[in-house]
Amino acid sequence: MRILGIESSCDETGVALVDASGSATPRLLGHALHSQIEMHQAYGGVVPELASRDHIRRVLPLTDAVLAQAGLPLRAVDAIAYTRGPGLAGALLVGSGVACALGFALGKPVIGVHHLEGHLLSPFLSADPPEFPFVALLVSGGHSQLMRVDGVGRYELLGETIDDAAGEAFDKSAKLLGLPYPGGPALSRLAQQGDAQAYKFPRPLLHSGDLDFSFAGLKTAVLTQVKRLAHAHPDGPATLHLADPLSAQQKADVAASVQAAIVEVLVKKAFMAIRRTGLRRLVVAGGVGANALLREQLGAACAQAGVRVHYPELHLCTDNGAMIALAGGMRAQAGLAAVDAAEAGGYPFDVKPRWPLADLRLPSALTG
Ligand code: KG4
Ligand code: ZN
Prior knowledge:
Blueprint: E1 2-7, E2 12-19, E3 27-35, H1 37-41, H2 48-70, E4 79-85, H3 89-106, E5 110-114, H4 115-121, E6 134-139, E7 144-151, E8 154-160, H5 166-176, H6 183-191, H7 216-230, H8 248-277, E9 281-285, H9 292-305, E10 308-310, H10 321-333, H11 336-344, H12 364-367
Parallel strand pairs: 1-4, 4-5, 6-9, 9-10
Antiparallel strand pairs: 1-2, 2-3, 6-7, 7-8
Residues 115, 119, 140, 286, 319 line the site of zinc ion.
């Protein structure tokens, strides 16, 4: 059973092929990615229309490249998985349209995959794959969630952000410091030269007693601090060059301090989830999972508590086709893909730009 996976929810076009034969963890046969970061950088963020047009240009050449890597013809593909949502509607429609067209032409089924399920399962492609059940800390550009994962399709939301995602907090703070999009990696690089104790930023909802996050206030605190250092008027606007008067050291100190605040909240809440569920396994996924400080602090805390922590391979932390092919493969192995396909009927060519992972319930046929 070979599954082709297509990811096009935002600013990366990803295509991959996995072998999901039998019940073994799917194996990656080929994987290709085109990042649009450079194209969007001029605008300081993703321009949805440009993203869709670029996905159209990239998806078939990437598919050819993946098949060439795997040494297989297109007809060797048994099913096509694509990101059905959440994400940018136009961008999602490209992946969905191509998947349905390929599926129809080959007479093979399509599997509409939830993007976050892809992130969640992505550590199964790593050299140290997890076992169910586990707690998942899902931290991407648009989502910050803690989930209890008991198996493929068995996800229970434990807590989530009530406003900005952790990735957004990184990106917005980076923008205030004049760093290029996407801000997370740039901010964490700058933070290496900074003093994390220099400024005391809030740790939102740290003591709220629940597993929810809130990062919107952090961006305001960073804005206030940058204005203070730049001697700008406290009520003035957040302009593009606001941080220009800051010294390189001041910028690095702000970066290190805000990173420390985000990471502390993520680590403490992840551990609260571990304590509440009694589980001894943690999976960290999504773009922010690539953050070195987060990995260092979670690693230390997990070692001390005797908790196993699993990550996707570093290059599979951010968006990619491999995680979509993998999720499609694991859903097929669990018997879920067939049920999904029967529900959707043929080649649905539809997308779900807003799609809470909690809505991804097990079909009644399988819950018994
Ligand atoms: O999962 P992802 O690729 O896309 C979404 O599904 O949203 O996550 C992208 C997010 C961006 O906010 C980016 O700034 C952040 O992940 N990110 C990082 C790092 N690498 C990517 N944040 C902090 N440190 C990093 N090293
Ligand atoms: Zn993502």
